[in-house]
Write a structure and sequence with these properties.
513 residues; alpha+beta; BirA Bifunctional Protein, domain 2; Rossmann fold; 7-stranded mixed sheet; 18 helices
């Protein structure tokens, strides 16, 4: 645990030191769970958004984009169920006065049991070597069987209690499991209560006439209310999708995990409209497709896993999370939900307008079913950033801090470094920048010895350093150094554009999908 905390602290301080993330309004001591993205963070975030957008919209002929407003008619949130049911179960510790999400306390407890099972499995794998059969071991080892059964039983009891709104049983479960305040160890808990997460605001010039509005807690509803606008004007045929990225706001009860849980954050969502009865087929398709997208970034396949939901939201008939191994363990990164026809039907009912589709092949009208993929842009940022940050011991015993961001996402693709600040080298470096800047975000760095500049760019996440030396003046060649392998190649200046294209472009990374 201590190691995890250390790693997480390093992530946070590195993000600040290198201009990725600052606390919001820091000069006024900040605002809890609100963050600003600095010069590098803004680029990384933009690149993640674009990587998602291109793979969803540009690569699919039947998916189009949308950019709906943050403010929506207040009835939207009645229809969607958010006014009545967008709650988290909260619990306070009477001694520490700290507030927690009751479901998260229980999930964290269950996760520890799962980790115990995994430890046993790892130990056995080591002991038995090649002869080890993991499935058989899991099915027969009494200790592992017990851990897995306990894990399942806890989550399914919590799921069914939450579904039945039986908050007394959620508290009982916390007590039975002996769950203590993670900070103080106290088990002196209040009852569990529901807490609505939406932020309210007012629209209008005077207090008497102002309308109560909500800041949207998810981008999805902007897509549902525009379903027919897009379908008709885009002449979209089912199955088709509408994708959107944008801000969402939630008054989170506990927001202590940096940009993992923020009060203002950004989502990247896609709603896929399908024939009733075909939703599970597409749900499975999108589960696979989204996982592949994540894996394409090369952060390590072992860092992802699916978590199928026991407790389904009021609108869903199947749901799973793609979980990522964050510095504080496996947590939700993306949700994939089969939302049935709940949202469109509810909006029909509350607006009195038909939101149906005429299927020419079937020759009938119906309300489409929806499969949703929803990933937090900030959580993606944290996933990418935290896995990329590494401390390496080099062959000569020295160490370096390197931010191994996937090159396609890196804020700066290459730094152009004149070996010395004279003899025409800076001028040639600037010429190279003048040529590359049209397609790539490149930086110039002439301060300090070149070795120090390499280290600085390593820590900054820049995948390539291009060094201009005296030979460059004679033969129009430069060295290009790879951040991860630290290998250098001599290449002609003319080939730089092609090389950067091959190694950093959306095309070359997305083509791997
Ligand atoms: P959690 O269980 O962690 O609260 P959720 O299940 O409420 O998340 P969804 O409503 O499915 O989340 O939202 C889709 C995605 O939006 C999540 O997978 C996550 O990546 C992102 N997200 C949700 N809440 C936040 C938040 N407060 N801060 C940052 N990202 C968030």
């Amino acid at each position: 645990m201590a190691k995890q905390e250390d790693t997480f602290k390093k992530v946070i301080s590195h993000a600040k030191e290198y201009g990725y993330i600052f606390g919001s309004s820091e000069i006024y001591d900040g605002l809890s769970a609100v963050y600003d993205y600095g010069q590098n963070g803004a680029e990384l975030k933009k690149n993640i958004r674009e990587y998602w957008w291109k793979s969803m919209v540009q690569m699919h002929q039947n998916i189009v984009g949308l950019d709906a407003s943050i403010f929506m008619h207040p009835t939207t949130w009645k229809a969607s169920g958010h006014v009545d049911a967008f709650n988290d179960p909260l619990i306070d510790n009477k001694d520490s006065k700290k507030r927690y999400r009751a479901d998260v306390l229980i999930e964290d407890y269950a996760e520890k049991i799962l980790q115990k099972a995994q430890k046993e499995i790892k130990k056995a794998a080591k002991r038995f070597g090649d002869a080890f059969n993991e499935d058989e071991f899991k099915a027969t080892n009494p200790r592992v069987l017990k851990y897995l059964a306990d894990h399942k039983a806890i989550l399914s009891r919590m799921g069914s209690s939450l579904e039945k709104e039986d908050l007394a049983d959620v508290k009982l479960l916390i007590e039975e499991l002996g769950i203590a305040d993670p900070d103080t160890g106290s088990k002196n808990w209040t009852d569990v209560r529901q807490f609505n997460l939406m932020f309210g605001t007012k629209l209008g010039a005077s207090a008497e006439t102002a309308t109560d509005l909500f800041l949207r807690p998810e981008t999805a509803q902007g897509i549902f209310v525009n379903f027919l606008n897009v379908q008709k004007t885009g002449r979209m045929k089912i199955p088709f999708g509408i994708a959107q990225t944008g801000k969402a706001f939630r008054n989170e009860i506990v927001a202590r995990q940096f940009i993992f849980r923020m009060r203002e954050f950004e989502q990247m969502e896609m709603q896929f409209f399908v024939r009733p009865g075909e939703e599970i087929k597409y749900y499975e398709y999108w589960k696979k497709t989204r996982l592949k997208w994540h894996l394409s970034l090369g952060l390590g396949d072992e860092n992802y896993r699916f978590h199928d939901h026991d407790k389904l939201a009021h609108y869903a008939n199947a749901a799973a999370d793609i979980e990522f191994n964050f510095p504080f363990g496996f947590k939700e990164l993306e949700g994939i939900h089969s939302r049935t026809d709940f949202d469109l039907k509810a909006h029909e009912e509350f607006s009195g307008k038909k939101l149906q589709y005429f299927d020419h092949e079937l020759n009938k009208n119906y309300t489409p079913y929806v499969v949703e993929t929803s990933v937090g842009l900030d959580r993606m940022f944290l996933a990418v950033f935290s896995k990329s940050l590494q401390e390496e011991t080099l062959e000569d015993g020295s160490s370096r801090t390197v931010l191994k961001l996937p090159a396609v996402l890196a804020p700066v693709k290459a730094a152009i470094l004149p070996l010395v600040k004279k003899d025409g080298l800076p001028e040639l470096a600037q010429q190279i920048i003048g040529n590359l800047k049209w397609n790539f975000n490149v930086a110039y760095d002439e301060k300090d010895a070149v070795g120090r500049r390499y280290r600085r760019q390593d820590a900054n996440g820049t995948p390539f350093c291009i060094t201009v030396d005296h030979d460059s003046l004679k033969d129009q060649t430069v060295t290009i150094r790879d951040r991860d392998t630290m290998k250098q190649e001599r290449v002609s200046i003319n080939s730089l554009e092609r090389i950067l294209e091959e190694r950093t472009s959306f095309k070359s990374w997305l083509a791997k999908l």
